[in-house]
Amino acid sequence: LQYKFPEGFWWGSATSATQIEGAADEGGKGQNIWDYWYQTEPNRFFDNVGPESTSDFYHLYKEDIRLMKEIGHNTFRLSISWSRLIPGGRGEVNPEAVTFYNNVIDELLANDIEPFVNLFHFDMPLELQNEGGWEKRDVVEAYLQYAKECFRLFGDRVKKWFTFNEPIVPVEGGYLYDFHYPNVVDAKRAFQVAYHTIVAHAKAVEYFHTLDIKDGQIGIILNLTPSYPRSKNPADLRASRIADLFFNRSFLDPAVLGEYPEELVEILREHGQLPVTRKGDLELIKNNTADILGVNYYQPRRVKAKGHLPNPYSPFMPDWFFDNYEMPGRKMNKYRGWEIYEKGIYDIMINLKENYGNIESFISENGMGVQDEDRFVENGEIQDDYRIEFIQEHLKWLHKAIEEGCNAKGYHLWSFMDNWSWMNAYKNRYGFVSVDVETKKRTLKKSAYWIRDVSNNNGF
Ligand code: BGP
User: Fold this and answer.
1) What's the gap in Å between 276 CA and the centre of ligand 1?
2) 358 Cβ contact partners less than 8 Å away, ≥ 6 residues apart
3) Is the CB of 421 within 6 Å of ligand 1?
4) What pLDDT score was predicted for residue 389?
5) Is 365 a known active-site residue?
6) pLDDT tens-digit series, residues 295-313
7) Which domains does the chain have, with CATH numbers?
8) pLDDT of 368-424, one tens digit each?
9) What one-character-per-residue DSSP string does 185-215 give?
């Protein structure tokens, strides 16, 4: 083997409740913002397809876990649907949801697959969103109650917990760039949402650490987009540094170091954008940092200095400080339109090692979305050699980072199977396993056999 990974390396894949469960109005589930948004504005979604049935994991989890086992997974990430567990967001726990998640967890453990459980993957219960969602401080308390229920119900078997997946995405999508509900564009509200998310994270971490969960760890999952300047001239460097502050360090620093970067705070102060805080919050954040970090990596961010000064009378936006830059000759995923830059994974890991105490981490999502993947079917199987190459090239860089002392413990592909995605519905396919949207039939892709061998050999 040319690339051997450390003993006990985590091989697996990631999913989220809204994207795979289906059964959106079954089993006592309450509504979340995605159910509601689809009902009220179906034409925002690709092909007018909503999250009602998705891959139907709710009914087919046993078959799926059998396939995970078959392809060598020793770990698997899922999220709990808040509105399934506590249909109104607050109050009574739904017993059917408890049964479902117990069954899934037990089935995973019976197959020697360790469950990594995430509490929040973009799916705010509708009632809480109607109160103002993450803009409202009260929702932080509702989240803490929900988190406590999850630890109480499943903490005897689940050791790896995550408070949030990509918390910046609901901030960008819901409050800056109009691709998540409630689709407002207002930076000040965006920063309040981001801030309350970090407070909620810290409260859940604080509570978790009072529990006596043997080998238990809690952390957060961040989509890190390493920021590369067009050139080394000071204006480009500054643009890149500020993009990094807004899109990476706004969550990475408080979650891992326990404090916000001073330069970010200064920028927000100068422009009258600081969120409302409460006494004691900063201490809470300081004292309750993550034990473990999940890194989602898809693409880098390339930026250059602003071509022109922003109009000072226009509403404040992070984009006041940089322009996106399309580097000539960059490698693209031509099936999805995202840049592929494998070395980004290494740069992230080195940064974590040098500036973030080499926190225990793993790649919690990385993957290649492909449109119309059926065109690659031969003999009934999708020949996704492009995905194999994509994963392999990223793993080489991860391997190099580990050799240089980075504390990376695993690799999860996005995703185990093809699933429904936010606004894009089934447009981009990501799985090791293909899912027929009509019949829900599962078929392994070529990459599934490849990853089975990689995980069985712990390398390639
Ligand atoms: C990440 C999310 C996932 C998943 C993935 C692919 O940001 O955590 O939920 O959707 O991106 O993105 P998309 O489905 O938009 O191609």
Assistant:
1) 30
2) 352, 405, 406, 407
3) yes
4) 98
5) yes
6) 999 999 999 999 888 887 8
7) 10-457 (3.20.20.80)
8) 999 999 999 999 999 999 999 999 999 999 999 999 999 999 999 999 999 999 999
9) --HHHHHHHHHHHHHHHHHHHHHHHHS--TT
